[in-house]
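Dear H.,

Thanks for agreeing to be a second pair of eyes. The structure we're designing against is below in token form, covering all 275 positions.
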């Protein structure tokens, strides 16, 4: 996943704690299972990378959340490195560690992976943590506000991140309960940045231009799916709503641009919260 923007309100007594919109960018040849409950981990709701076995974004029935983006450093890529998607699945299927505890464990072995950003959260704790294995900051808890992650560290001002973060902030300011379909449409934006706005990440200029769009379209690579997520407080429960719009209905026949939608909702009990 290559662009995530989110509004985080951990102190909200009622209404949204997290409003998130995310695009996953990947090669079209890489087979993927769409968003669903996993058969081998029935409490886990996520898509699945069928080559690496992990995922890019997911939630658990007990209120945990995780998502990943790759860190763009082409000269630093090692073909034999372990799959980064296992870091998302590991948080959601492993022992119920606090977000910072899990990220600190990841940081101890972070050098063995290619570059990544990892955000993990526990909604019952009202905690959301972030770590990048190519950044200088240690694992940290994300402060309240509107944020974005692309293929550099948290809130790096790449044009598409700045634009989509601002649009999300404007949308939730106007309507805290904005429809998830509006979040999906916000991310389906194919506009590219001007050349003078582009970051220099070590890839050819033509490729840098193509990847500057929020919604990427190239012959072999692009935005494979868009996810919109809201987690809201309602007294003694948290309500989860999630939509994925993707290019694959599960048959692994890619259709561009993706229009296959899957929707899920469920509640998380917080009466026995660990806060």
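And this is the sequence the design step returned. I haven't edited it by hand at all.
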């Amino acid at each position: 996943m290559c662009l995530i923007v989110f509004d985080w309100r951990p102190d909200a007594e009622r209404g949204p704690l997290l409003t998130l919109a995310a695009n996953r960018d990947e090669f079209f040849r890489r087979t993927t299972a769409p968003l669903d409950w996993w058969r081998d981990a029935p409490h886990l709701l996520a898509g699945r990378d069928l080559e690496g076995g992990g995922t890019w974004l997911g939630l658990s029935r007990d209120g945990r959340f995780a998502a990943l983006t790759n860190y763009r450093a082409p000269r630093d890529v090692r073909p034999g490195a372990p799959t980064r998607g296992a870091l998302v699945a590991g948080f959601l299927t492993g022992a119920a560690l606090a977000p910072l505890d899990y990220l600190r464990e990841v940081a101890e072995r972070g050098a063995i992976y290619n570059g990544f950003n990892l955000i993990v959260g526990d909604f019952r704790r009202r905690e959301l943590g972030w770590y990048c294995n190519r950044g200088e900051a240690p694992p940290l808890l994300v402060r309240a506000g509107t944020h974005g992650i692309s293929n550099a560290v948290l809130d790096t001002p790449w044009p598409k991140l700045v634009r989509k973060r601002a649009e999300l902030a404007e949308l939730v300011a106007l309507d805290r309960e904005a429809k998830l379909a509006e979040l999906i449409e916000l991310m389906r934006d194919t506009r590219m940045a001007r050349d003078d706005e582009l970051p220099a990440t070590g890839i050819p200029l033509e490729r840098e231009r193509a990847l500057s769009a929020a919604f990427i379209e190239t012959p072999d690579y692009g935005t494979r799916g868009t996810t919109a997520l809201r987690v809201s407080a309602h007294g003694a429960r948290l309500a989860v709503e999630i939509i994925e719009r993707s290019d694959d209905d599960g048959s692994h026949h890619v259709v561009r641009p993706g229009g296959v939608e899957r929707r899920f909702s469920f509640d998380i009990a917080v009466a026995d919260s660990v806060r």
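Two observations from my side: Helices lie at 85-93, 99-108, 159-174, 180-187, 205-211. Residues 159-174 form the longest helix (16 residues).

Warmly,
E.
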